[in-house]
Amino acid sequence: MWAEGPAWNGVGRYLVWSDIPNNVQMRWLEEDGHVTTFRSPAGNSNGNTFDHEGRQISFEHGNRRVVRYEYNGKVTVLADKFEGKPLNAPNDGVVHPNGDIWFTDPGYGSLMNYEGNKGDLLIKEAIYRIDGKTLKLEKVADDIFKPNGICFSPDYKELYVADTGASHY
User: Fold this and answer.
1) How, if at all, do strands 81-82 and 126-130 pair?
2) How far apart (Å, rounded) are the C-alpha atoms in residues 16 and 77?
């Protein structure tokens, strides 16, 4: 139904993206150009990225969590709660060269069942960082209304976050 969170895997030579309402991840293979369903169900994942070890990380609206897909097929939950309360609906993320995972949690996937599972937002929308070594979750900022897209500058000294709240309210 739509394409969100494209991420390129340079080793596997494929592009993965999420179709949130259909609860699937799709994959385009460079080798022959064909598209297949990559993961189904996919937790209504939105953003996708790869860490510096080549493991895919996804930001799931439906399950309100950040996950990493291990080489052996297992799923590691990297974050699903902050201060004992469920995340809103992790949206997009990026990995720093030091291994830290930065992500946004605007709650869009919890506003209705179309993109995830409707539910109350029990914490303020915010930007978070998962420590790459300890996996400890830290809130970085909550002064942006609806933090959405996130990326680093090419030298990794600046973090850019898109606030998409103004266009929705």
Assistant:
1) unpaired
2) 19
Q: What sign does the CA torsion over 168, 116, 133, 82 have?
A: positive
Taking a C-beta distance cutoff of 8 angstroms, is the pair 25, 42 a contact? Answer: yes
> pLDDT tens string for the chain (169 positions)?
889 999 999 999 999 999 999 999 999 999 999 999 999 999 999 999 999 999 999 999 999 999 999 999 999 999 999 999 999 999 999 999 999 999 999 999 999 999 999 999 999 999 999 999 999 999 999 999 999 999 999 999 999 999 998 655 4
Q: Is 27 helix (H, G, I), strand (E, B) or coil?
A: strand
Whose structure tokens read 């909550």?
142
Q: Please, are residues 96 and 85 in contact by the beta-carbon 8 Å criterion?
A: no
pTM of the model: 0.95
What is d(CA 42, CA 59) in angstroms, rounded to the nearest whole number? 10
Query: Can you tell me the distance from the alpha carbon of 60 to that of 83, in angstroms, rounded to the nearest whole number?
Result: 19
Q: What secondary structure letter does DSSP report for 95?
A: E
Q: Which two tokens stand for residue 26?
A: 């799709």
- Six-digit token string for 124: 């303020």
Q: Do 106 and 79 form a contact (C-beta atoms < 8 A)?
A: no
Report phi then psi at 110, rounded to 5. Answer: -105, 0
